[in-house]
Amino acid sequence: MKAPKLTADASDALIRMAWHDRTSFDQIREKTGFTEAQVIQHMRRSLKPASFRLWRKRVTGRITKHRKRFKQRSG
Question: Which of 32, 39, 47, 69 is the most exposed place for a label (fewest CB within 10 A)?
């Protein structure tokens, strides 16, 4: 599924949400309509290659980026 086009401000907001540890992909989808795969695709296009790799390393396996995992872990 191809990600929709974003304005510069919307793109910046999406990138900020994606970098934020406590903002899950589910919350991003509720606010923007972007799926996890679309967020990854957008980040790949928008960030420098080294920044993208750093972000992927940071969010891969992170419990807080997935609401179901976070709820199971916290309570």
Answer: 69
- The predicted model scores a pTM of 0.81
Q: Are 4 and 33 in contact (CB under 8 A)?
A: yes
Q: Which two tokens stand for residue 16?
A: 């900020």
Which two three-digit tokens encode residue 42? 């957008």
Kindly report, residue by residue over 23-47, the tens digit of the pLDDT.
999 999 999 999 999 999 999 999 9
CB 21 within 8 A of CB 64: yes
Q: What is the spatial distance between Cα 58 and Cα 2, in angstroms, rounded to a whole number?
A: 24
Domain ranges for the chain, please list them. 9-74
| Exposure string over 14-34, b if 16+ CB within 10 A, otherwise e | bbebbeeeeebbeebeeebeb
